[in-house]
Backbone:
């Protein structure tokens, strides 16, 4: 629609800019706070301009963290988070695409039943089943391990469902043509279905990676060994741990670094991500 | 190369729905057979059973000298062209053609030779590096055919391959398919619902209805001597006019009735056989009025209300096809003439009487 209404334009822009400001301002404050020396915060006034200690704060955070309060250096927590998020993401994608393939392309007894069972788990997020899941993981001896951090979060009804919907839009004749061309089911999956799903995989990768990266409650529950702390839960430890005042400059530096990887993933996969959400290749 | 033999082929779906019953058909080596029928008549099901994409629930299918009932599509040595082409969208044209050969572990240089040969025959060499998305409908159609011929299979199966093309391209591709088949001499089974394709393409025509074969014969045989009223109404456009024997008796055409078998119930007349000028031989004359005049360039269609009551009052309308554009006025009285030789007699069961 092409309309020219200066007042309406102005008003909508003001609303939009206000909205952006509300979202962006806390992030700005976090970045600014991470560049000040420790003494700044004791006075209780938040500075609004960057301070001189940026580099120093980040180096301290990365290499030492708040060791006295029992938190490992940020670099270790970043690495832990990355391993966990990648394991969850790749695990989710691998399992859900294969189960969607089974549900759509194979006729086995109780196929619909299994589909609905998978679909039902959509209603049970980690937080709801956290106590029994904890019990299972503890009994299996997976506390304080990457397996314990990632495996319980891998099953994904959402991804299975999305892949199923995508597979159902792939013309059946493609599968038949592949059969005539001498491709068995797995070859069809590898040669045709997988390349066609690539944009969907990318989009889900971004969503799942952020989901995995932002896990808070689960890592908090099952890790007691600081070797396995992840960054999102680590922030909380940094604030409350120890008996001194929170070291806000280090906390803020950690916050900024914790927010960075999801942003990078989105930036790098943006093109594929948008394509996967909007376009269906025919 | 090989022929295809079907003995009592039948298909019953899990729910008990019978899609096909007792199909017997022998296709000779190198023959071009067209399956035609209205939608839902089972022609595509039959084709897919030959391809191996549908299981065969009754009867025996032989391709060459092998029983093919339980074979996977890839083991049957057939190639299929789908209605929507079913090209692999993420592969280049070259890879689309080569995919089947690679799965058969054909040597690389052999694949290359065959793909280029097929591309040359179909004149798609320029597009080998493109993806299907970047091709027009006609070009995609050629690629789909290329994928079939590149494998040099025993049998080609076409499932309404031209129905997604525009009218002009359809005519062109029809001619090309026929020429291609003449050159390659590969046994071909071709499914269509298009009259013109059915009549022009094949060596033999198989008309199907309700899961059974109605008639098998050369296109001209089927057109000239339809075996049932269904075939008579289905093949030929506009459809054959059907006149009831008792109606004809009413109009006083006793002499004409003497010329046809006694058990006749319905009499068919092709629109081309309704003549405006009396032919020299023995003929029947029907009186009527011109209800509608449709000029179509080289020919014209006349819709004629024939005089006489059709069992309870409704009038009988016949369609005639005449060449050129005769100067006729709508609603004007009109006599049409039919040679006795052009009457198609059918009995009460709808079968041709003699």
Residues:
């Amino acid at each position: 629609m092409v309309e020219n209404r200066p007042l309406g334009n102005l008003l909508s822009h003001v609303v939009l800019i206000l909205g952006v400001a509300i979202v962006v301002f806390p992030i700005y404050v976090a970045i600014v706070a991470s560049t000040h020396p420790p003494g700044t915060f004791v006075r209780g006034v938040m500075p609004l301009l960057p301070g001189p200690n940026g580099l120093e704060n980040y180096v301290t955070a990365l290499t030492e963290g708040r060791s006295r309060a029992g938190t490992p250096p940020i670099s270790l927590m970043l690495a832990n988070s990355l391993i966990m998020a990648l394991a969850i993401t790749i695990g989710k994608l691998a399992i859900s695409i294969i189960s969607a393939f089974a549900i759509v392309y194979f006729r086995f007894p109780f196929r619909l039943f299994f589909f609905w069972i998978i679909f039902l788990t959509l209603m049970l997020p980690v937080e709801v089943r956290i106590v029994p899941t904890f019990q299972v993981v503890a009994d299996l001896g997976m506390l304080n391990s990457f397996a314990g951090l990632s495996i319980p979060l891998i099953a994904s009804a959402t991804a299975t469902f999305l892949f199923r919907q995508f597979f159902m839009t792939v013309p059946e004749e493609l599968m038949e043509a592949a059969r005539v061309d001498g491709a068995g089911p797995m070859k069809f999956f590898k040669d045709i279905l997988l390349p066609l799903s690539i944009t969907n995989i990318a989009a889900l990768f971004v969503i799942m990676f952020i989901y995995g990266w932002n896990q808070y409650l689960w890592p908090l529950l099952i890790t007691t060994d600081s070797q396995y702390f992840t960054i999102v839960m680590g922030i909380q430890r940094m604030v409350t741990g120890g008996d001194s005042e929170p070291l806000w400059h280090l906390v803020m530096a950690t916050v900024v670094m914790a927010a960075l990887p999801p942003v990078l993933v989105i930036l790098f996969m943006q093109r594929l991500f948008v394509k996967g959400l909007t376009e269906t290749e025919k | 190369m090989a022929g295809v033999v079907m003995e009592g082929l039948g298909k019953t779906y899990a729910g008990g729905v019978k899609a096909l019953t007792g199909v017997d058909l022998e296709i000779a080596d190198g023959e071009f057979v067209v399956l035609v029928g209205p939608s839902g008549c089972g022609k595509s099901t039959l084709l897919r059973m030959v391809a191996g994409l549908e299981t065969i629930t009754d009867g025996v299918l032989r391709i060459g000298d092998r029983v093919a009932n339980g074979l996977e599509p890839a083991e049957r040595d057939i190639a299929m062209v789908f209605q929507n082409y079913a090209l692999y969208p993420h592969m280049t044209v070259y890879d689309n053609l080569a995919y089947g050969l690679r799965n058969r572990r054909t040597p690389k240089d052999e694949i290359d030779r065959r793909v280029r040969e097929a591309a040359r025959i179909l004149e798609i060499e320029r597009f080998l590096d493109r993806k299907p998305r970047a091709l027009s409908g006609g070009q995609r159609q050629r690629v789909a055919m290329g994928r079939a011929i590149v494998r040099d299979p025993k049998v080609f199966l076409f499932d309404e391959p031209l129905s997604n093309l525009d009218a002009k391209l359809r005519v062109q591709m029809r001619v090309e398919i026929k020429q291609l088949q003449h050159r390659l001499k590969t046994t071909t089974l071709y499914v269509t619902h298009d009259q013109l394709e059915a009549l022009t393409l094949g060596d033999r025509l198989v008309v199907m209805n309700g899961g059974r074969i109605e008639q098998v014969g050369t296109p001209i045989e089927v057109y000239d001597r339809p075996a049932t009223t269904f075939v008579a109404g289905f093949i030929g456009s506009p459809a054959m006019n059907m006149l009831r024997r008792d109606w004809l008796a009413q109009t006083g055409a006793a002499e004409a009735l003497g010329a046809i078998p006694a058990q006749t119930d319905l009499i068919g007349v092709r629109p081309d056989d309704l003549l405006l000028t009396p032919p020299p031989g023995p003929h029947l004359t029907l009186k009527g009025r011109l209800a509608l005049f449709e000029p179509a360039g080289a020919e014209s269609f006349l819709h004629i209300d024939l005089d006489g009551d059709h069992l309870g009052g409704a009038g009988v309308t016949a369609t005639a096809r005449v060449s050129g554009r005769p100067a006729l006025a709508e609603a004007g009285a009109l006599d049409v003439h039919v040679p006795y030789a052009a009457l198609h007699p059918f009995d009460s069961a709808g079968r041709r009487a003699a």
DSSP finds 13 helices and no strands in chain A. The mean pLDDT of chain A is 85.
